[in-house]
């Protein structure tokens, strides 16, 4: 389990780097678009669709990493007051919901990407389906990361529950 978790940690780190680079690129492209529109009076046609595609990448990959790291919002007041066994049950129910949600995102993202892959985006010439690829990958990563959380929670390999409790205690 530790080897799988280490591999998923690398995937999460790479995803976070891609998200950060995408955010910086989107900011630079948007700044160029504003400069082109108001200073040069000639806005580049490729900047808006490129920014939207980059935004999808950093939002969905970043959200998947947020699921893995436990940074998403939650109603934690009940969890802080519970003993370990009920806490594990409630956290697992939450992770199961995220798995189903992530699998739904992955399935419908794939369906949207496959259905629009042959339609090019006019301004940049890329397939329209590339806009839905981060939805698919982000959803699948959310599901995989939630499965990892459940496996770690119930294995003796890693004290995930204690780490989760410490995170809850710092919030409360």
UniProtKB/TrEMBL annotation:
It comes from Consotaella salsifontis. Keywords: Cell inner membrane, Cell membrane, Membrane, Transmembrane, Transmembrane helix, Transport. It holds the Pfam family DctQ. Belongs to the TRAP transporter small permease family. This is TRAP transporter small permease protein. The complex comprises the extracytoplasmic solute receptor protein and the two transmembrane proteins. One of its GO terms (biological process) is C4-dicarboxylate transport. It is a multi-pass membrane protein. One of its GO terms (cellular component) is plasma membrane. GO terms for molecular function: transmembrane transporter activity. Residues 26-154 form the Tripartite ATP-independent periplasmic transporters DctQ component domain. Part of the tripartite ATP-independent periplasmic (TRAP) transport system. InterPro entries: DctQ (IPR055348), TRAP_DctQ (IPR007387). The lineage of its organism: Bacteria, Pseudomonadati, Pseudomonadota, Alphaproteobacteria, Hyphomicrobiales.
